[in-house]
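Task card 7
Instruction: Convert sequence to structure tokens.
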Amino acid sequence: MVLNITVVGATGQIGRQVVDLLTAAGHRVTAASRASGVDVALGTGLDAALKDADVVVDVLNSPTMDDDAALAFFTETSANLSLAAKGAGVGHYVLLSIVGVDTVEGGGYLRGKVVQEETVAASGVPYTIVRAAQFHELTETIVGSLTVDGQVRAPDAKIQPTLAAEVATVIARIAAAPAINGIHDVAGPESMSFADMAALVLGARREEMPIVVDPAATYFGTPITETSLIPAPDSERTATRLSDWLASK
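Output:
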């Protein structure tokens, strides 16, 4: 079945891939972004972008990690897009979110993602929330954020990273399927400690640095427990291991 699908955030890391995948599958895709005249935070251009849309895929990301600005961004964009989707009679709202986002006491970015999920779920539009684990592509940044005075201070927690391209494939598949009115978790094939993740990243870069498990260490300022970032047991698993991806770079 050929669908009219609007991808919002179409120029981002995931959005570009989702647009290509859906187009290759034969769907009629509208790639909505600021470049195409759509500003979701302001609500401009949405009526035209959603005209005749069967599905909207929301892969927007905040342009900043600043607490107040990120919270405002997700609050405003989810409210505007949900209202426009309902007005346009969209039959399925697909939202990209984060594994465990509702289990941590995070800053404005994570609180904004929770607001985003709640807004979509309450919108009256059939929906599927895809909660993805951290991307392989983010692991080097994570390790950098944990590096203090020549040491990696790793939280006493686990992580289950996944490849961004495989998440895009999941989102494209879900966009072409009926809404589940619930949450679909997706993560990589293996969970590991933050310390083990750091060792893999450093090893791939041929860097030597002490790795210390520090119960006080945080994830970008957010305290986490051992399982905060681990998906539900029945979650979808992608195929590419972090070690294999690092070796292929």
